[in-house]
């Protein structure tokens, strides 16, 4: 039991490092998610503009 304090300290440091890694991964994920949403919205706008420029088809109802 001489090293109980050291063992607890090491355990807490590992936990803090794991939490820090988790927070960093979460932030990275949220940034990537936001960028994907922007890309999808931009693609939707481009697609709509492209469809608006096409001539009207006589088969369209």
Query: Would you tell me the structural class of the helices and strands?
Result: mainly alpha
For the record, give the distance between the C-alpha atoms at the N and C termini, rounded to a whole number. 82 Å
What integer is the average pLDDT?
92
Strand-residue fraction? under 5%
Total beta strand runs: 0
SSE order, as H and E? Answer: H
User: Helical content, roughly?
Assistant: over 70%
Task: Give the overall silhouette.
Answer: rod-shaped
pLDDT below 50 for ≥5 consecutive residues: which ranges?
A: none
Q: What Rg do the Cα atoms give?
A: 26 Å
Largest sheet at a glance?
A: none
Number of helices: 1
List strands and helices in order, with pairings.
Layout: H1 4-53
Explain the overall architecture:
The chain has 61 residues and is mostly helical. Helices cover 82% and strands 0% of the residues. It contains one helix and no strands. The longest helix has 50 residues, at 4-53. The radius of gyration is 26 Å and the shape is rod-shaped. The model has no long low-confidence stretch (mean pLDDT 92).
Key phrases:
single chain, 61 residues, mainly alpha, 1 helix, rod-shaped
What's this entry about, in short?
By secondary structure, the protein is mainly α. The chain has one helix at 4-53. The mean pLDDT is 92.
């Amino acid at each position: 039991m001489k090293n109980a304090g050291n063992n607890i300290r090491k355990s807490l440091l590992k936990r803090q490092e794991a939490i820090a890694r988790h927070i960093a991964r979460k932030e990275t994920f949220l940034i990537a998610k936001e960028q994907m949403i922007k890309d999808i919205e931009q693609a939707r706008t481009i697609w709509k503009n492209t469809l608006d420029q096409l001539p009207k088809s006589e088969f369209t109802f």
